[in-house]
Amino acid sequence: MFFGEAQCKPVDDVNAFVFPDFDIDIPAAAMKVVRGKVQRPVTTKTFSARHMVELMHPSDGEGLVVYGNLTRKGRIYETYADLEHAADYADHHLRKFKKDIYLSLHRYHGKRVTQNLVELGCVFTDLDYYNTDLAKYPPEWIADEVLRFCDDEAFPAPSMILCSGKGLLCIWLHDAVPPSELSRWQLIQDEIFRRFERFGPDRGAKDAIHFFRLPGSRNSKVEDQGNPIVRLLWSKGSPMSPARYDFEDLISEIVPPSETVTEPVKRALSKPKPKPKTTTIKVHVPDARPEGEHPLRRAVEKRADLVGYKMTHRTYYTSVFDDLERLRVYRYRKGILPPGRRDSWLFVASVCLAWTVDVEMIEEEIVDLARGRCEWDEDEIKARMSAVIARAHMAADGIEIEYNGMVVDARYSMNADTIRQWLSISDEEAEAADLRCLIGEDRSIKLASARSNKSKHRRGLLKSTHAAMADRRVEIGAAALEMQKNGASMRKIAVHFGVSVGHIHRCLGFYAG
Question: In Å, how far are 7, 139, 160, 232, 390 from 32, measured between CA atoms?
Fold first, then answer.
């Protein structure tokens, strides 16, 4: 079924509808959409935020639903709701904030981080088609092109397509699977990203913890460009209960057989491609470092203490990229890098891309990355990041280089301490921006300890602070009673335990109770 925001009018052919007049040049062939019988247009009243929440987070599940609100400082403030009140929270947020409201597509045991995932229930892609040559077309036409692409490529059609006010969100619902399937789930995400490249998929919206705008809310970025309301455009089946795929079917239909893995989540998300026969040469590629900076280190720091398992190059640089984005949003309200701060940030971010994307896409990805974050044109971006691009192509060709007597990968490598020096990240700023990888030793230990304690609490291996204090009072009360029977005064007992006499009386009361 295809839907519009009360804009699309039926035509004589009951299996088609046309778009209203737009101030753009749309090919005549694109004006008619044939996707089954058109029913009454879906609006924010017939498919509301409440419907979206109930669809994504059924009441018989478990965990917390996460909502986000964009603050005036450009940061997202998160709130949490249990399943019983999640739909009411959606209505409350719409009444209170009206715009820039986000909803998690998955649920969590606490904070919205991978380690807290309850289960996986959908795959998705965020299509920023406005960054492509399709920018002049309306979202309804783009949605139909997505469906036509799925038909032509024998690719499973999305369960639902939503307009985010600026781009499109395609969601494939599937039966719930545990977080241990995250590695295979990520393979589906990566393949969707690759196959939908024409529509400008957002590479930053591939992780399981990403969340998106709530239907019925307004996108403040496009309030002056027509209809900024987030709305449902199409669903496979009823909007209230769209088609839901079997997870194994999605794996078999989307992921090439050679890439299918069954490894648990605590391993690499995908197996590295076999390297071609290598040739070691000594080369010198111009460095994009700011003048006077220390040389780059070639060893990637394996910060296993930050994530609970040994990191690969890919997972390390993915974590670094996430921290770079958090830092950018924290430092600059509008997210635009100011003059004098662009080279270092973009160089590090480009290094991350060199380790996480295919070499055929590296140049395009770097250009797309820089366009939304600085005011350089394409030629200037390529010129400034030419060293990173050159090294990435060398590595793809199997060329290794010799550095300090060691044969290493041709791509630049930067450990967390080097990046912190480059970008002048203090411990206080790292904590305020909630960085997880580009942090000092003290914060690393603190986060590791907090994760360990939280895990023990969840498994019942560690009592809460309150419970531990109660046990200690009972223990002191029992010992104090025994000492009192042997003739010790309350004062001596208090001195023995290093507490006040009043505290000894309270401990005796705890023991007696």
Answer: 14, 14, 20, 19, 46
Measured CA to CA, the distance from residue 481 to residue 509 in angstroms comes to 10
Global pTM reads 0.49
Residue 334 DSSP one-character state = T
Q: Tokens for 2?
A: 């295809």
- Contact (CB, 8 A) for 494 and 503: yes
How would you classify the pairing of strands 399-403 and 279-281?
parallel
Joined together, the tokens standing for residue 322 give: 């996430």
Write down the H helix ranges in 171-239.
182-195
Joined together, the tokens standing for residue 147 give 């469906």
- Residue 397 sits at the vertex; the CA angle it makes with 392 and 400, to the nearest 5 degrees, is 75
- Which pLDDT value is given to residue 20? 34
How is residue 56 written in tokens? 């994504």
Q: Tell me the helices (H) and strands (E) count for the chain, helix number first.
A: 17, 14
Q: pLDDT digit string (tens) for 465-488?
A: 666 777 788 888 888 888 888 888
CA 57 – CA 98 distance, rounded (Å):
21
Give the other-Cβ count within 10 Å of 208's Cβ.
Answer: 19
Is 232 strand, coil or helix?
strand
3-state secondary structure of 459: coil
- DSSP-H helix ranges across 397-440: 416-423, 427-432
Q: How far apart are the C-alpha atoms of 261 and 184, rounded to whole Å? A: 6
Sequence-separated (6 or more) residues with CB below 8 Å from residue 125: 169, 170, 189, 192, 193, 196, 201, 202, 205, 206
**Rounded CA separation 100/229 (Å):** 10
